[in-house]
């Protein structure tokens, strides 16, 4: 999203003044940006990869770690969202007027649904052995990651500092690298399925709520 697509009234409120480090709102914007980047391209990404590889290498213990990582991400996301809302309020601009803000809100809602669905899906699988909900959980998680990575790019466009293009490139490459690593992890699915089959044939079951 280029700065030319930002409404002038909104741009006046968020442009040059918010890049003044002597103003409180600048720090709120900056902290919001940094924390959201760390949350989605760091914490959540690590949780996704841990879930993908943990299913194969830690078949009996991956879930509680995956859940703990993602819960940490939810808490971090909530703090970052509050910082963003405060920054916009201090700037005197409209809330959820830009694509970045609207998409951010949508991503937050999807993350909360994903968190609840992940736990419910785990219980369903342990009690009834159904896998369909797990496939949906994975697909939604990857969708959220893609939307969040794109929204990071939109946010950097809004920030407008000269280093922004550099960070856009760095974070864009990082996002692609994470996606490549995840896709590479899909090659482990056959081994994971075989492990699960062996456990089932041996009468092994994981604890219901680990």
From TrEMBL:
| Domain Cytochrome b561, chain residue ranges per copy | 1-192
Q: Where in the cell is it found?
A: Membrane
Which GO terms label this protein's molecular function in UniProt?
A: heme binding; metal ion binding; transmembrane monodehydroascorbate reductase activity
Where is it predominantly found?
membrane
Under the heading CDD domains, the entry gives: Cyt_b561_FRRS1_like
Q: In which domain of life is the source organism classified?
A: Eukaryota
The UniProt keywords, alphabetically, are: Electron transport, Heme, Iron, Membrane, Metal-binding, Transmembrane, Transmembrane helix, Transport
**TM helices/strands, residue ranges:** 27-50, 71-91, 103-123, 135-152, 172-191
**Keyword match Ubl conjugation:** no
One Pfam family, short name? Cytochrom_B561
Q: Which cofactor does it need?
A: heme b
Q: Which InterPro entries match?
A: CYB561D1/2, Cyt_b561/ferric_Rdtase_TM
List the PROSITE patterns hit by this protein, alphabetically.
CYTOCHROME_B561 (PS50939)
Cellular compartments per GO CC: membrane
Bilayer topology term: Multi-pass membrane protein
> Would you tell me the protein name for this molecule?
Cytochrome b561 domain-containing protein
Organism equals Tilletia caries (wheat bunt fungus)
